[in-house]
Amino acid sequence: MATTRPVRVMDPFAREFWEYAEKKEFRMQKCGECNKLRWPAAAVCDKCLSAEYSWEPLSGKGQVLSWIVFHRQYFPEYPAPHPAVAVELAEGPIFVCCMPDEFQGSDLSDALPMELTWLDAEDRFGEYHLPVFKPAGK
Amino acid sequence: MASRVVEHDRLKKLKDTVAVVGVGESDYVGDYRSGAKGNAAEKGSGALNSYQLAAIALKRALDDAGLTKDDIDGLVVGGPMSTERTCEVLGINASWCVSGDAPRGIIAATQAINAGLCHTVALVYGNAQRSMNTQYGGPQAMGGDGILSYVYYAPWGMTSQGGLYSMMFRRHQLVYGTTEEQLGAVSVAFRKHASMNPNAIMKERFTIEDYMNSRYISEPFHLFDYCLINDGGVAFIIQRRDMANGKQIPINVSGIGWSEMDIDSTQLRPRLKDFYLPAHHAVREQVYPMSGMTPKDIDVYATYDSFSTHLLFSLEGFGFCEPGEGGAFIQDGRIEIGGEIPCNTSGGMLSESYMQSWNHQPELVRQLRRQYEGTERQVAGAEVGQYVHDVAGKCLSVVYTRGN
Ligand SMILES: [Zn+2]
């Protein structure tokens, strides 16, 4: 059974992101006119306002930019303590996420190489795959 | 992006054209202790709603100014209140009325008065946020997708404005070597200031050791890095300068500045890559030349302080010290009353009252009036005050000077 997680923000563009995630494909929108990668998903490019885009496959590589450890519990689905990490993707965007349960905040350091992995998840939109990052090669 | 042009000639014309002539607030301690048996208010237990809190503050600001409600022809409404209901509750058919936080309201009022739309503006705020059980993180976080980063990362367990600022502080630690112990100087200083303020909610002083021993909320942030959550109201009156010859020494609005930094903000790029410094620099280019002041001229300083780090970042951004030097700069009493740059002298939102930019304004005004003369709370000889508002992509500032 998939792990219940706090509900996703959903709109037609986010839905496309999660449809790729269903296939464990980590993609972000790339502007059809100026090529800016945007995250989170949105209707138009914030750089040139073009509505043209494609879903660009990403390498799933990045490095640690920052992290915190929650000691207060905000969500019933995330008992404290639990870390959150900001990963600067090789392609540029910053991706904020959690890590698989076996990793702690103390495993992280500045610019540590990180790689994509997937966790089982479920919310009121259904079961899905949640993209997260973990220390590379661990 | 289009290059930014500061129209100094136009901006300078607004210098000292309006002044703060009256200030008031509700009884923060009583509002906080309005729960059963004098405990902190809980959901539904608050005696006063947001509008009532605002009305109490307005009456006090009018009395302070020696004005009556009939003198008011403009209104700025802050917090969760609507403009329509506020005008109704206060019985004011304003000729100009907008919503906003305190600095946006001050800048808007300065513009409106100069445009001739009104001459005497009441800026009012009431927020029964504690007894309304307003949540700033978790599944019911306020604001919704208005600030998307507050809610977007919920599936990954990431939430709360505190979490976002803590991540920004961690980045500052990684880049510059800033320590938690250095940061602790902020909440220790603000609590010391609150201990001199009868209207402050949290008055008990603590030490750096107490700070370091306090529990983490979102590590590296400790409990004392977080502001309070309480009910309360604040009001102040801004009047056309040539009319401001009433009861109080007018406190001039001598400089204003504003810059947004919202591109890629859900990704946290302005926080983690830039520490919002470009926004600070843009505001600096407005507020200092307009007022004719520099950081060296500021006698008393206040910053939005939902978290302790706002002070660190704004002192770096506005040139009180260089980027990266903030941790060392705030040590040794430099930011305390009696120090080089006394900051948040009422205790701020960390210790006085979480009035979301509103409680800082009456404090700066009273310091420049020298209303605390004869007590340890007065910043000796205060002539120039600055408020810096740096919160979630909005950077604004106001420089006040003591009128004569
Ligand atoms: Zn584009």
Strand line-up of the largest beta sheet of chain B: 3-2-4-7-1-8-11-10-9
Give the neighbour order of strands across the main sheet of chain A: 6-5-4-7-8
Radius of gyration of chain A (Å): 15 Å
Supply the CATH class of chain B.
Alpha Beta
- Rg of chain B, rounded, reads 20 Å
Describe this structure in words.
- The complex is a heterodimer of chains A (138) and B (404).
- Chain A has 138 residues and is mainly β.
- Chain A has one domain (3-135).
- Chain A is built from one helix and eight strands.
- Chain A has a five-stranded antiparallel beta sheet. Chain A has a three-stranded antiparallel beta sheet with strand order 2-1-3, with helices on one face.
- The two termini of chain A are 25 Å apart.
- The model of chain A has no long low-confidence stretch (mean pLDDT 97).
- Chain B is of the alpha/beta class and 404 residues long.
- In chain B, the strands form two sheets. Chain B has a nine-stranded mixed beta sheet with strand order 3-2-4-7-1-8-11-10-9, sandwiched between helices. In chain B, strands 5-6 form a two-stranded antiparallel ribbon.
- In chain B, helix 10 packs across helix 11.
- The longest helix of chain B has 16 residues, at 50-65.
- The model of chain B has no long low-confidence stretch (mean pLDDT 94).
- Chain A binds chain B through residues 5-9, 39-40, 46, 65-72, 74-75, 77-78, 81-82, 84, 86, 93-98, 105, 110, 121, 123, 130, 132, and chain B through 137-139, 145, 148, 151-160, 163, 166-168, 170-171, 174, 215-221, 263-264, 266-269, 272-273.
- Bound molecules: zinc ion (ZN).
- Zinc ion is lined by residues 31, 33-34, 36, 45, 47-48, 50 of chain A.
Provide the descriptors you would attach to this structure in a database record.
heterodimer, A: five-stranded antiparallel sheet, three-stranded antiparallel sheet, 1 helix, 8% helix, globular, B: 404 residues, alpha/beta, nine-stranded mixed sheet, two-stranded antiparallel ribbon, 11 strands, 32% helix, 18% strand, binds zinc ion
